[in-house]
Amino acid sequence: MLRYAIRRFLSLLLSLGVASVVIFLAIEVVPGDPAAVMLGVNAAEDTLAALRAELGLDQGLLPRYLDWAGGMLRGDFGVSYTYRTPVAEMVADRLWISLPLALYALTLSTLIAFPVGILAAARRGGAADLGIIGVTQIGIAVPNFWFAMILVAIFAINLGWFSAGGFPGWEGGLLAGLKALTLPAIALALPQASILARVMRSALIDTLGEDFVRTARAKGLSPGQALRRHALRNALIPVLTILGLQFSFLLAGAIIIENVFFLPGLGRMVFQAIAQRDLIVVESVVMLLVFAVILVTFLVDLAYAWVDPRLRGGR
C-alpha cells in the first residue's frame, strides 16, 4: 500500500510540473496586452513601457515562468494586474464560496445517485428501472444553466422561497449561506446525479453477474443480501472514478452557474480576469484548480487501493 501511494504521489508531482508549463504557455500566447487593457488604447508608449516593467511583463518567458512557479511553491500567487491586490487574498475570499458550493452539490449528487442506482440495478428490467433510466436521461440532456434559470423562476420569483442570486456572506450565519447556495447546488447536482446513478446501475448489474455473487446466492443469501454484502463494494471502483471527476468538475466548471446566480466565486473571478487580461490571476487560479483535480485523482487512487486489496501490494 505504501509503495503504491508513493508511486501515485510522484506521478502527482510530475503532472503538476507539466500542467504548470502548459498553463503558463497557453495563457501567455493569448493575444492582447494587459498594460494596454489597463491604461486604454490611447495611452502613450512610454507609459505602457513603464507599466510593463512594473508588472514584469518586459521579461522573457523563462524568467517570468520561473518567478511565477517559484512563487506558487512558496504560496505567493503574485499581485493582480487590475486590482493591485495579492492573488492569494482574492482566491481565499472566493474559495469560501466555490468550495462549499462544490461540496454541497457533490453531497446532494451522491445522496440522490446511490439509492437511485442501487434501486435500478435491484429492479433491473422493471418499471422502477425503466423510469429511472428515463429520468436520468433527461437529467443528462438538460443543460445545467437552463435548469438553473428554471429553478430561479419557480423557487425564487414565483414562490419566493430563495433569493434569485447573490451571497450574504458566512458572517450572516451558516443557514443563510447554505440557503443562498441551495439552488446553485441543486442546479449543479442533478445532472451529475443522473450520470452517477447510471454508472452505479451499470457497475452493479455487471457485478451481480459475476461468479462470486452467484456462489453467494447458491449459499442461501437473498438477492438484497448478496447485493449489499458482495456486489456493492466491488462495484465502487468505476463509481469512485466518476465521483472524483465530478468534484473536479463542480469546483472548476461552475463558471456559468456562478454567473447565473451572481455568486462571487472562483469561476466568476476567472471569467472577469480573462476579460480584463489579468494574466497572473488566470494562471494562478487555473493552476490551483488543476492542483485540486490532480489531488482528488490521487485520493481516488488511494480509495481504489482500499476497495481492491490487490493494489495494496503494488500490483
From TrEMBL:
Molecular function via GO: dipeptide transmembrane transporter activity
Listed transmembrane segments: 101-122, 134-161, 173-191, 235-257, 285-307
Gene3D superfamilies listed in its UniProt record: MetI-like
Positions of the ABC transmembrane type-1 domain: 95-300
Lipid bilayer topology: Multi-pass membrane protein
Keywords noted in UniProt: Cell membrane, Membrane, Transmembrane, Transmembrane helix, Transport
PROSITE patterns in UniProt: ABC_TM1 (PS50928)
InterPro entries: BPD_transp_1_N (IPR045621), MetI-like (IPR000515), MetI-like_sf (IPR035906)
Subcellular location(s) of the protein: Cell membrane
Family: Belongs to the binding-protein-dependent transport system permease family.
Protein name (Swiss-Prot/TrEMBL): ABC transporter permease
Organism: Halovulum dunhuangense
